[in-house]
Amino acid sequence: MTIAVLDLATETAKLLAELGVDASRYHGGTLSVTSPVTGKEIGKLREHSVSETKAAIEAAHRAFLEWRAVPAPKRGELVRLLGEELRASKAALGRLVSIEVGKITSEGLGEVQEMIDICDFAVGLSRQLYGLTIATERSEHRMMESWHPLGVIGIISAFNFPVAVWSWNAALAMVCGNSTVWKPSEKTPLTALAVQALFEKALKRFVAEGGTAPANLSTLIIGGREVGEVLVDHPKIPLVSATGSTAMGRAVGPRLSQRFARAILELGGNNAAIVCPSADLDLTLRGVAFSAMGTAGQRCTTLRRLFVHESVYDQLVPRLQKAYGSVTIGNPLETGTLVGPLIDGQAFKNMQAALGEAKSAGGTVTGGDRVETGSTEAFYVRPALVEMPDQTGPVEHETFAPILYVMKYSDFDEVLALHNAVPQGLSSSIFTNDMREAETFVSARGSDCGIANVNLGPSGAEIGGAFGGEKETGGGRESGSDAWKAYMRRSTNTINYGRTLPLAQGVKFDVE
Ligand code: NAD
C-alpha cells in the first residue's frame, strides 16, 4: 500500500474551502486533528474556553426564545433548505468524513445520505407535531395535549458518526422549536465545521427568502471533555443528547439527573446475531461480514458476538474465515476497499489487549494482526474472528475494533438467555427461516435490545425507526418514530367552555 505518500492535508483544505469553511478556523490552534488514513495532521483548531462555551449557551437560549414563536412548518422550511445544502455538498462532505474518520467512500457518502434523510423526515414532521384530544369526565370541558418547544438542546457526539448523529438530533430539535449547541468529538471537529458552514448557508437562504430566524440557532463548540461538561451542567440546557462510550454516559447521566435535566444517552453496544439451523447461509455470510467488518468494527451497532447452531457451524465458520482472510483492507478512499483503518493507536492497543484476553480464555484467533502500510502512524488491521468456548472475558465488553467472537450453541432457549446475558442492549439479529424462532426473537421473551432484526445483521439502521438501546446502552432513542417527543415538553390542557365548575372525581368545594 502507498498510504504514506498521500497528501490529505491539502485535499482537506480544498474540501473545507468548497464547503464554505474559512481556513482561519482550522489553522493555528492547539487541537491537532489527524486523519486515520495516514496518521498525519490535517488541521489545527482553536478550542473554545469554558467561559466562551457558557456565553454561547446564553446566546443559544436567546435564540430559542425567538425561534419557539416561529410556526413549526416554517421552522421545517429551514430544515428543508439544510437538506438541499447537504444534497448539493454530499460528495465533498462524504469525502471529508472518509478522510477524517477513515470510512470507505460509500460509507462516508452514506453518512451524509442519512443526514439528508433525517432532514426530509423532520420537514414532514414539522406539520405533524400532534397532540391528543382526551375524553374528559366533566361536561362542557375539553382535555388535550399540546407539545411545546423545550429550550437549548445540548448535543455531544462520538467520533465514529461525526455528522449524522448531529443531524438526527438537530433536525428534530429545530422543527420542534429549539436551538442547539453541539460539541462534536475532539477527534472529528473538521466535518463539524463543514456542517456548521452548510447550516449557516441554509440559514442565509431562509432569511433571504423572507423567513425569520435568530442568530445562534445552531452553535458549534470545539473542544474535549471540559467543554462537554459545561453543556452537561448548564441550567439553561434542559436536554443533553450524548453519544459515546458507556464510561462517558456513566459520568454524564448522574450529573444530568442531579439537576433534573433530560438525557438521551446513546452509549456502547455489544451486539449479537444467532444463526439457526434453517438459516440461509449465503445471506447470513453477507449479513455477518458487513455487520462485523464494516467501518472496521467501529459502529455502535457492529456485530461482536455470533452464536451458531452446532448443525451449521462447520458449514458457516470456515466460509467466514475465508471471507476474513480475503477482505480488502487498505486506503478507504480507494474503490474496492472494504475495511479502512482504526481511528488511532489507542484503538489498536485496545484491540490487541482484547485478543490477548480472548486467547487466555481459550479462544482461537484468526486475523487481528496489523497490516503494514508504510506508515507507523496509521493503524490498519486484519479483522479478527475468534472462536470462543463460551461467553466470558472480553466477549462481555465492547472493544471498539473489528473482533467477532463466535460461539457454538445447541438449544434455542439457552442461546436466547446467553444473547441477553451481557450488560449492553443496543442491537441484535437472528438468521432463521423458522417462523417460531423469528417471532420469539422479536417477542417480549426474545432479544432485550432496542433493535432486533430478522435475516439481516444488527448494523446499518435507517432513520425512520427510533434508534437506541437498553441497559448500559443508556435507554435513549433518537431519529425516527416518535423520538421527537423527547425534544418537546408536553402540556395537558383542560378547557371549560360551560358556565358551571364541576370538579374532577366529584369533589365538592362550594363557596358563597
Ligand atoms: P467517547 O465516550 O470517548 O466520547 C464521546 C463524546 O463524549 C466526545 O465528544 C467526548 O468529548 C465527550 N465526553 C467524554 N467524556 C465526557 C464528559 N465527562 N462530559 C461531557 N462530554 C464527554 O466515545 P468515542 O470514542 O468518540 O465513540 C465510541 C463510542 O461511542 C463507542 O462506545 C460506541 O459504541 C459509542 N457510540 C454509540 C452510539 C449509539 O447511538 N448508541 C453511536 C455511536 C457511537
UniProtKB/TrEMBL annotation:
Family: Belongs to the aldehyde dehydrogenase family.
PROSITE patterns: ALDEHYDE_DEHYDR_GLU
Keywords: NAD, Oxidoreductase
Lineage: Bacteria, Pseudomonadati, Pseudomonadota, Alphaproteobacteria, Hyphomicrobiales
Quaternary structure and interacting proteins, as annotated: Homotetramer.
Protein name per Swiss-Prot or TrEMBL: aldehyde dehydrogenase (NAD(+))
Kinase recorded as keyword: no
InterPro entries: Ald_DH/histidinol_DH, Ald_DH_C, Ald_DH_CS_GLU, Ald_DH_N, Aldehyde_DH_dom, ALDH7A1-like
EC number, as in UniProt: 1.2.1.3
Organism, scientific name: Rhizobium leguminosarum bv. viciae
GO molecular function term, any single one: aldehyde dehydrogenase (NAD+) activity
Transmembrane regions: none
Domain (Aldehyde dehydrogenase): residue spans on this chain: 29-490
Enzyme class, broadest EC rank: oxidoreductase
Catalytic machinery residues: 266
